[in-house]
Amino acid sequence: MALIRFSSLEKINDRKPIHVDPPSKEVTDYFGSNIFDDMKMQKFLSKDAYNHVQRSIMKGTPIDRKNADAVAIGMKAWAVDLGATHYTHWFQPLTGGTAEKHDAFLEYSDTGAVVESFSGKALAQQEPDASSFPSGGLRNTFEARGYTAWDPSSPAFVIGDTLSIPTIFISYTGEALDHKTPLLRALNAVDKAATQVCQYFDKNVTKVQANLGWEQEFFLVDEALFYARPDLALTDRTLMGHASAKDQQLDDHYFGSIPERVSAFMKELEFEAYKLGIPVKTRHNEVAPNQYEVAPIFSECNLAVDQNLLIMELMKRISRHHNFRVLFHEKPFKDINGSGKHNNWSLSTDTGVVLHSPGKNPKSNLQFLTFIVNTIKAVHDHQDLFRASIMTASNAHRLGANEAPPAILSCFLGTEVSKMLDQIEEQVTNRKMTPDEKTELKLDIGKIPEILLDNTDRNRTSPFAFTGDRFEFRAVGGSANCANPMAVLNAAVAAQLNEFNKSVEGLINKGVKKDEAIFQALRELIIASRSIRFEGDNYSAEWIKEAKRRGLTNVTDVPEAISSFRSDSTKKLFISQGILGESELEARVEVMYENFIMKVQIEARVLGDLAINHIVPTAVKYQNVLMENVSMLKNLYGDEYVELAGNRVELVREISDRVTQIKSLVNEMVDARKAANKITPAEKRAKSYSRSVSGYLEKIRYHIDKLELIVDDEMWPLPKYRELLFSN
Ligand code: ADP
Ligand code: MG
Fold first, then answer.
1. In DSSP terms, which residues pair with 208 in a beta bridge?
2. Residue-wise burial string across 401-418, b where 16 or more C-beta atoms lie within 10 A, e elsewhere
3. Residue 297 CA to ligand 1 centre (angstroms)
4. Which residue owns the Cα nearest ligand 1 atom 11?
5. Protein residue whose Cα sits closest to atom 13 of ligand 1
6. What is the position in ligand 1's atom list of the atom closest to the CA of 354?
7. Hey, where are the domains in the chain?
8. In this predicted model, what pLDDT tens digit does every residue of 38-89 receive, in sequence order?
9. Radius of gyration in angstroms for the set of CA atoms belonging to the chain, rounded to a whole number
10. Which bound ligand lies closest to the C-alpha atom of 340?
11. Are the beta carbons of 392 and 558 closer than 8 angstroms?
């Protein structure tokens, strides 16, 4: 195996960047060329059909069969022009990632002739044989039908020869089996609630949309090395590997110049992303060696989620053109920064106002503060659910690793906004304010700088930070589908805005004036959510103590974190707003536990295999070399050998000790797995995996990593960190 390692390194050094030409000189020539966007709809649809789809996008009204047929004909004509021969419904099963089932346009006509056809029915609905997607028990196999249904708010796209139609995925009985359905419901809820609240400030607002700008971090690993690491290939992370003598200590990778081969990959990625209308804006090196980031300009949340999933697919595909493999795992390398996916989120109105951005006058600033305060309160009330929405087997390795927020939720606001909230808390009282007091407060509110972006002190350690015109949910993992945290955030804010609305209305009904009612309601929220506000260093040990004192929760165990999806407050939040019903919620939780179990199970198996059939034999082989050396020294020098071979004798003993440890730990791990596998229900099984299986991964690795340091490099069967991280 070592030979493969060296020849692959040679090959890597020989690799030349593969430059791909852009489809055209100007990006605007081809931006969005492969999506069925508004412009294409106008061109390919009748006026009636176009208006119908627009209404459906804006109002969520269903599209009838006649119009669906008309849209299908137009969409097909457009797609065929681009070379499409097949179509697929593209959806987001609970496994993670996306799924698709391709069908040719080919059909038999009534006369039996072969025709190319695409009907409204095929556009609107498909019935993938869905029995093998996880449903958390919602679908019994005898009624394994699940339907995908067209989501017209995210444009269809063509990749290669296939027209892909973004869809939701629901069971025969209408329950959500995917990530998109609850997100769409949550976005609808936040639209309604926020539009209501906006009426206090501007009656012209009729729609509020949630925005998302994601920042995708990832690693690129040369494919030859990737394949020489079965752990990377099977689990997306290294389950062993001693730290490289040099890694990120010098901070010399962050924002450094992008290596040529990586840059060629990024360029091709951008061309393809632009064709799909993904407005990729930023690319740069990240903190860790071989780690990078891409981020687009933000867009409407549902669309942004789809675009993120799409670009992850593009990255997987395009990285291969450049002999790379892309890693989205949150912690592919121990003790090296992992990959997150900051979710920049805000609400904005159809009148063009970003509600999380300060305005020009006291009134718009009061609106701004209203949305800030309600957002904080939502995070405060649902901190456990926020955590649950980002906690996975893989992200748990990253959280709290001194590079990513801890498992404690808190909000950072910056001095300007904090000061303003403190002032409202102090100055507003339950009694009627004097006109002077009110004027003074309004004046101060009016003084919030219009552009906070440059004035906002950045706090990179906060899991949920205000950054001038948006909140940045930083705890989201690199491999995650943003739909899950975004559904939770939007649902929680929607519920909170409804509460706020009720309080203000209540006060107004009691005769309190509108602006004073808003002040009073805000003050209540500021007081009630104070504990979630934290401006200090979230990575510090003091914060853990302080958070505990404040009564904030800190859950690092994945199955325990997930169980918050079952809490009464979560049920109330989701069920009352129609985002997920009780059985849908239950099913989702089951799938999360199963995912966790499977991830740990696979890692444990892979590590067990590698330990026993790669590492132990190698260590023993090297031990034999050492022993031969010792015995030859003894032959040559007699008793004097003790002095000459002393350290080799110690090494022989150390190898024996470690090999023995590894073998017995692997055996114990197998037993722990067997015991855990027998446990039902999934929640208990997941807890058992967490408690009694996952700990072995570290324990076994410890000895392997020590062996890596002493065994002859030429014999070591796996590429090491220095190779994985410093080629490209
Ligand atoms: P950072 O300084 O954190 O790297 P960037 O300026 O690169 O931030 O922006 C990160 C993401 O936030 C981008 O996708 C950007 O479009 C998005 N973004 C900017 N303003 C908003 C906003 N008001 N709402 C949502 N996302 C936003
Ligand atoms: Mg950011």
1. 349
2. bebbbbbbbbbbbbebbe
3. 7
4. 213
5. 213
6. 23
7. 31-178, 187-580, 594-724
8. 999 999 999 999 999 998 888 778 888 888 899 999 999 999 999 999 999 9
9. 29
10. 2
11. yes
Q: In this structure, are strands 86-91 and 162-171 parallel, antiparallel, or unpaired?
A: parallel
Query: Of all protein residues, whose CA lies closest to atom 17 belonging to ligand 1?
Result: 213
Single-letter residue type at 141: T
Q: What is the pLDDT of residue 433?
A: 81
Q: What is the CATH number of domain 31-178?
A: 3.10.20.70
Please report which ligand is nearest the Cα atom of 471.
1
Around ligand 1, the residues with Cβ closer than 6 Å are 211, 213, 215, 282, 295-298, 344-346, 354, 469-470
pLDDT confidence of residue 644 = 86
For ligand 1, atom 25, which residue shows the shortest CA distance? Answer: 345
b/e burial code for range 169-179 (CB count within 10 A of at least 16 → b): bbbeeebbbbb
| Mean pLDDT of the region 123-136 | 68
Of all protein residues, the one whose alpha carbon is nearest to atom 1 of ligand 1 is 215
Which of 253-262, 325-334, 616-625, 710-719 bottoms out in mean pLDDT, i.e. has the lowest? 253-262
How far, in Å, is the centroid of ligand 1 from the Cα of 213?
6
pLDDT at residue number 635: 93
CATH topology classification for 187-580: Creatine Kinase; Chain A, domain 2 (3.30.590)
CB 421 within 8 A of CB 369: yes
Mutate to test the pocket of ligand 1, among 212, 282, 298 (most ligand atoms within 8 A of CB): 298
CA distances from 227 to 94, 259, 546 (A): 27, 22, 45
Please say whether the dihedral angle defined by the alpha carbons of residues 422, 427, 428 and 429, taken in this order, is positive or negative. Answer: positive
**Ligand 2 ion local residues (Cβ < 5 A):** 342
Distance between Cα 292 and ligand 2 center (Å)? 13
Query: 62 preceded by cis ω (within 30°)?
Result: no
Q: Which tens digits make up the pLDDT trace of 268-290?
A: 999 999 999 999 998 888 778 88
Question: d(Cα 450, Cα 101) in Å, to the nearest integer?
Answer: 49
Please tell me the distance between residue 356's alpha carbon and the centre of ligand 1 in angstroms: 12
- CATH classification code of 594-724: 1.20.120.1560
Q: What is the DSSP letter of 640?
A: G
pLDDT tens track for 573-609:
999 999 999 999 998 999 999 999 999 999 999 999 9
Q: Kindly report the CA angle at 378 between 372 and 383, in degrees rounded to 5?
A: 125
Sign of CA dihedral 385, 387, 390, 393: negative
Whole-angstrom distance, CA of residue 143 vs CA of residue 691: 36
